[in-house]
Amino acid sequence: MIETNQPNNRMPSTLWGIHMPKEVGTIPIDEGFVGLGWREVGNILDIEKNRAAFKKSLSEAYPDNKKGAIPVWAGMLFRFAHEMQIGDGIIYPSKSDRMVNLGIVDGHCTFAPEANHESMLQRRKVNWITHLPRTTFSQSALHEIGSALTLFQVANNSDEFIAAFSGKKTDIAAVDDGGAEAVSEHVEENTDDYVLRRLKTAINDQEFEQFTAHLLEAMGYHARVTKKAGDGGVDVIAHRDELGFEPPLIKVQCKQTFNTIGRPDVQKLDGAAQHGEFGLFVTLGSFSADAHGYEQMKPNLRLIDGAELARLIYRHYSNFSPALQQIVPLRKIFVPGPSSAD
Q1: What's the CA angle centered on 123, arms 121 and 126, to 5 degrees?
Q2: What order do you get walking across the sheet with 250-255 strand by strand?
Q3: Do residues 81 and 105 make contact, with C-beta atoms less than 8 angstroms apart?
Q4: What are the DSSP calls for 287-335, one per residue?
Q5: What's the mean per-residue pLDDT of the chain?
Q6: Where does residue 174 rank: exposed (0-12), middle (13-18), buried (19+ CB within 10 A)?
Q7: What is the per-residue pLDDT across 252-282, written as a single tens digit (0 to 9) for each?
Q8: Which CATH class is domain 11-172?
Q9: pLDDT at 182
Q10: b/e map 80-115, b = 16+ CB within 10 Å
């Protein structure tokens, strides 16, 4: 059961999805809000309460922008200020840690001109209920909250998100054997979800250690999985030469989890690395800010989270054995990308 902070187990009837740039990090979560930008408009509560007035204000504030964008922006800002109600649910898929954050709108619209990022000027206070890995949700739900709009209503998969709000496990297939659907704007994120879900559900923790060792071999290393008894938290040993005599020796810890890895676990691996040795921590999830801070102080330590693990798999996939490719079956496709004029 997922632990939640929702008072009296009262579930929201209206759900909103919102996107904020990766650069804002965890600030909205830490400070309890969601935000939009459009600084030149000023405080949107000063605009007359109708859509025509919002369009007029945006047209005057951004005269050089495409006319087609103005109604879209006006609609989002109007909904954020006036249609979004206290007690509504908010779903924020965070790009910085690949978590889906669920909260309850807990305040009216405010203006924060001192905000250090443009997307945090217009704000709504949020009581965050729970924070779940993207892989908790079905591909359909992820497609919906991957909307191209910055602010949007969530309707098609509302039952799944309401279940998550209430602390219930969502009823989704453990592995999508059909592969991730190629959706041009979100194909990379969707494929990451598919790859990480496969590595969590299609193999056990010992096989994940073997997978990590094979990945290192595909990258040009020699690697072997250690024996469980007395491994000191080291799951894989890797080295450049065939016999393992030449330095440096790389000690690898593998965590087949979507949970956030904290500094204590990272320090434990660092303690297992002797003078002249390197430590490598591989996980499907993410690392805490303290863990990353510790990594920055240790030049012989490297942390690989789920997103970077997926990148390494794509880069070295052609060197995988057929058996390894069956664990994460992928095929190369082409999707629309930005043109030189964008």
Answers
A1: 145
A2: 222-225, 236-239, 250-255, 278-283, 301-304
A3: no
A4: E-HHHHHHHHH-TTEEEE-HHHHHHHHHHHGGGS-HHHHHHS-------
A5: 85
A6: exposed
A7: 999 999 999 999 999 999 998 888 899 999 9
A8: alpha beta
A9: 37
A10: bbbebeeebbbbbbbbbbbbbbbbbbbeebebeeeb
Of 52 and 186, more confident? 52
Q: What are the phi and psi torsion angles at 46 (to 5°)?
A: -80, -10
Whole-number Å distance between alpha carbons of 286 and 305 = 5
Please give the average per-residue pLDDT across 91-113, as a whole number.
Answer: 91
Report which residue type is found at 155: A
Instruction: Write down the CATH number for the domain with range 199-327.
Output: 3.40.1350.10
pLDDT of residue 176: 43
| Domain pair 11-172 / 199-327, same fold | no
> Residue 248, preceding bond cis, omega within 30 degrees?
yes
- Euclidean distance between CA atoms 310 and 188, whole angstroms: 10
Look up residue 134 and give its amino acid: R
285-322 pLDDT, tens digit each = 999 999 999 999 999 999 999 999 999 999 999 999 99
- Sequence ranges of the domains in the chain: 11-172, 199-327
Q: How confident is the model at residue 337 (pLDDT cuts 50, 70, 90)?
A: low
**Separation CA 206–CA 198 (nearest Å):** 14
pLDDT recorded at residue 1: 31
